[in-house]
Design brief:
The structure holds two protein chains of two kinds. By secondary structure, chain A is α+β, with helices and mostly antiparallel strands. Chain A is built from seven helices and five strands, in the order ββαβββαααααα. Chain B is globular and about 85 Å long.
Chain lengths: 167, 750
């Protein structure tokens, strides 16, 4: 039995230790916002915040998050209360197919949690782990900068307690 | 049943591809209204009594923006905010929701056709609904129609306003006008303007639903282990040894491999590691080494011209008579689509019903395949199409759907077939390789007098035909016979004719009095499909690089030389002029970066691109900046047009800089993003796009999903020549000390 927090709520899961966190979250906990892209930690579609860090959960054994706090896209914000980053994504109509965008938003959120005035180089470094086959990179960059300006006016990046387990 | 028979005849070529000037709306209204609440104006639009407008979206949304774009057409004529419309994905129904620009009206999303196909008909459908509601309101309120307006879900009359749902009952009882007047372009408030995409909220909050996200009761997961050489079949396997492993619900041999069904995906994957399969390999493909293809194609071209695909004037004579001439050869490899969402499909099958949840560009072919494999009737098959996590042509093929149907049938369980990335890269319908042997002649004035392009390589149609034939003949032919017929028909076509996608774009754009194009078919046997911009994805590279070689040898300006040969192609001339201004081309020699230009027309849209590059200290090519000018006729959704250009350029840059699928003994060697890399954010240039909005009403709409891709590879290759003097004639572009940079000399008559 492995115990961890998902979007603010503690869960106990009985699966083999080596099961990747992504499939536990998607197929057992039914949070479908995090996506499967490569199964090798190469594309970032599966990114979740683990104790605040953007991590690739398609290769992260569930046992590795025992006792930790996992935040998925659903925990960052909801359609009713989108986070600052999500609002910027909507404002710039960033998404094309949209499949990679949960992972992009998770990585952008991790970046902006630590740096509310990222340079282009900071953005490149934080986002190069997330592939977008549709090629929305320039819109992603604009949205991160828009969100950064909002955050510089003292708005919280995200509030896990507000949206816990709603999805 | 009759529908699919008709389809079969149409697809076999008895009907034209049907570019229709006037597309009649389906006569669905009468049946639909009988017994339904609210008002069905036609097959696309329904207004409930409580005022909810539902739009049945007939295409697939794969990122290209049709979901938003087609909804804005409806919103415009009904004066409603696009975000207030309830959009439903159409069921599989060729008659009602087929694509009028596709052969046989197939319900396919592709060829950059969605806006072109629906711009007129959907506005008309919405205008008819508006007229019907206004007429009903006039009658109900005892007023003249001219005293009534419809706006933001209300009827306004004599300073009063009424919810528009109040008039659905009366509207539903009357005939719907068929040709209500459309708004004039000057009155547009949504079309031609920027509007936030209606799918942005769901796609920014993880709530957009893709095929992989669907859950149904008792759903089991299945993976398929396929032959390392695509097309091989199972000879024998240790199925029993797998069946008892933890979580495994069944192991089955299906048409293209072994399927492992388990409670959870991870259990299926772990169990499959213990599979031991002996394969029956496809004979020809098993002998193919991709690093020899270019030489093999060239050898063939030495002795055979191939089939004539196009001729104008007398190219052979003009070439002989030319004042000066040049020849060169270009090559591009196989490519994979690599959609971010790997293929997946759920099938739930019972004795009298089949439900399919997936993301597909061809829902009606999906339904036909279900009929073929399950022996149910078309009415018993229900396709629930979802958002597509990328398409680019990959989801026009249905192999993953066939697998799911076969696994559901064999297991008797509701199953979801889930592909890994490795499955995806190694089992694609690949962009074909192409050798392009070019030659051109110039007259004494330095103008092009002749142009010939010979393309050597496999054709796509024989590879996509078997599934189509199986689908449309599902109720009359056995699956194996249908696929055989498809393969045989495809092979016959290979012998007899030129697939237009083989040479499209190789010769059309410029004013040259004598032209010829040839297709010489040689098929290594790896299966092929349509890949964003199809033949244009390589012909633009051959055409625009060869042109640049001619221009450089003539010592002319690449923009000026092209413009001189574009008198008959004013749209391409205008984007070329615009992109030169945007990039400040005339001052480019002062830039520390090196510039290259290319222009190309595809899918009815003219695009010109300039790339500025630098060479990194370790000899790599870094694309710093790209400028793009596009003329797609009227830009219905300008933001989406710009984003499609950006996305298409990045898609093309991945192919230009990295893209290559290689074969050893017929086995695809690449497997994931480490060896089939896609462009990442830090490798992406800044991109500036300008839309040349045609004001000429006679200029038809062009597509936007694909035309941005073709010009970028030649623009970068031409910039590489400007930077290094190396003429790279093979994709992906790689600089090396011993590159094929020995420029063929221009031959000039004395």
């Amino acid at each position: 039995m492995i115990s961890f927090q998902i979007n603010g709520e503690t869960v106990n899961i009985d699966v083999p230790d080596d099961t990747p966190l992504l499939w536990v979250v998607r197929d057992l906990l039914k949070f479908k916002g995090s996506k499967f892209g490569c199964g090798a930690g190469l594309c970032g579609a599966c990114s979740m915040l683990i104790d605040g860090q953007s991590m690739r959960t398609c290769i992260l054994p569930v046992a590795a998050v025992s006792g930790k706090a996992v935040i998925t896209i659903e925990g960052i914000g909801t359609p009713q209360i989108p986070s600052v980053v999500q609002q910027a994504w909507i404002q710039h109509s960033v998404a094309q197919c949209g499949y990679c965008q949960s992972g992009q938003i998770v990585s952008a959120t991790a970046l902006l949690s630590q740096n509310i005035a990222p340079s282009d180089e900071d953005i490149d470094a934080a986002m190069r782990g997330n592939i977008c086959r549709c090629g929305t990179y320039s819109a992603i960059r604009k949205a991160i900068k828009t969100a950064a300006v909002t955050l510089q006016n003292n708005v919280q990046v995200y509030d896990p307690s507000q949206s816990a387990t709603e999805a | 049943m009759n529908t699919s028979r008709r389809q079969l005849l149409k697809i076999l070529g008895l009907a034209s591809s049907g570019l229709m000037a006037n597309i009649a709306l389906p006569a669905f209204a009468q049946q639909a209204r009988a017994g339904s609440q609210g008002f069905d104006a036609n097959a696309f639009l329904h207004l409930s009594e409580t005022g909810t407008l539902t739009f049945v979206f007939p295409r697939a949304e794969m990122g290209q923006g049709a979901y938003h774009g087609l909804t804005t057409l409806v919103a415009e004529e009904l004066n409603i905010d696009p975000a207030d419309i309830n959009v439903l994905q159409a069921p599989a129904d060729t008659g009602l929701y087929g694509n009028p620009l596709m052969p046989g009206n197939i319900q396919i999303t592709g060829g950059s056709t969605s806006m072109i196909a629906h711009f007129g008909p959907l506005r008309q459908a919405a205008a008819n609904m508006r007229a019907a509601l206004i007429a009903a309101a006039a009658e109900q309120l005892d007023l003249l129609e001219t005293e009534i307006t419809l706006n933001q879900q209300h009827i306004f009359a004599m300073e009063n306003r009424y919810p528009w749902g109040d008039f659905t009952g009366l509207a539903a009882s009357k005939p719907v006008p068929e040709a209500a007047p459309l708004k004039s372009a000057s009155a547009y408030s949504v079309i031609g303007k920027s509007s936030p995409r209606i799918d942005a909220l769901a796609k920014s909050t993880g709530t957009a639903v893709f095929g992989l996200d669907i859950e149904i009761d008792n759903l089991h997961r299945a993976i398929v282990v396929r032959c390392p050489v695509l097309g091989g079949t199972v000879k024998r396997s240790n199925l029993q040894a797998i069946a008892t492993l933890p979580g495994v619900a069944g192991v089955f041999v299906i048409s293209n491999g072994v399927a492992v069904v388990a409670n959870h995906l991870w259990e299926a994957r772990k169990a499959a590691q213990n599979l031991d399969i002996e394969w029956s390999l496809p004979n020809h493909l098993s002998t193919i080494q991709s690093d020899q293809l270019q030489a093999q194609f060239a050898l063939l071209a030495d002795t055979d011209t191939g089939k004539e695909a196009h001729t104008e004037g007398d190219e052979a004579l003009a070439f002989l008579a030319a004042h000066s001439s040049l020849s060169a050869e270009y090559y591009v490899p196989y490519l994979a689509h690599a959609t971010m969402e790997p293929p997946n499909c759920i099938v739930r099958l019972s004795a009298d019903r089949c439900d399919i949840w997936t993301g597909t560009q061809t829902p009606d072919l999906t339904a036909g395949l279900a009929v073929s494999i399950t022996d149910l009737s078309p009415e018993q098959v229900h396709v629930h199409n979802q958002m597509l996590g990328g398409g680019f042509g990959r989801r026009g093929a249905s192999d993953y759907i066939i697998e799911a149907l076969e696994v559901a049938k064999a297991s008797g369980l509701p199953i979801q077939v889930v592909w890994s990335r490795e499955d995806d890269i190694r089992n694609d319908y690949y962009r074909p390789p192409a050798l392009m042997r070019m030659r051109a002649g110039l007259d004494e004035g330095g103008n092009l007098s002749s142009w010939r392009g010979q393309r050597v390589g496999p054709q796509i149609t024989p590879h996509v035909l078997p599934e189509i034939i199986q689908s449309v003949s599902g109720d009359i032919l056995m699956p194996s016979i249908a696929r055989w017929l498809g393969r045989t028909g495809g092979s016959a076509m290979d012998l007899l004719s030129v697939d237009s996608t083989s040479v499209e774009g190789l010769f059309e754009d410029y004013d040259i009095p004598n032209k010829a194009a040839y297709q010489l078919t040689e098929d290594p046997g790896l299966r092929l499909g349509v890949w964003r911009s199809v033949g244009h994805s390589y012909t633009a590279f051959g055409k625009e690089c060869f042109l640049d070689e001619i221009i450089q040898q003539q010592g002319e300006d690449p923009i000026e030389f092209r413009l001189r040969h574009l008198k008959g192609n004013p749209r391409l001339a205008s984007v070329l002029t615009a992109v030169a201004e945007l990039a400040n081309w005339s001052e480019s020699s002062n830039s520390p970066q090196h510039f290259g230009v290319a222009a190309h027309t595809s899918f009815g849209t003219a695009v010109a691109e300039i790339a500025a590059i630098s060479i990194t200290s370790d000899g790599g090519i870094r694309v710093e900046q790209v400028w793009c000018a596009v003329d797609c006729g009227y830009a219905v959704n300008p933001d989406i047009v710009k984003m499609q250009m950006e996305g298409s350029i990045i898609f093309g840059l991945t192919a230009a800089l990295f893209g290559e699928i290689t074969l050893v003994d017929g086995q695809v060697q690449e497997s994931n993003f480490h060896d089939y890399p896609l462009l990442r954010m830090d490798e992406t240039p800044s991109i500036e796009v300008v839309i040349i909005n045609s004001t000429d009403a006679e200029v038809p709409l062009g597509g936007v999903g694909e035309p941005g891709t073709p010009p970028i590879a030649p623009a970068v290759a031409n910039a590489v020549f400007a930077a290094t003097g190396q003429r790279l004639r093979t994709l992906p572009l790689k600089l090396s000390a011993a590159s094929d940079n020995d420029a063929p000399a221009m031959i000039t008559k004395v």
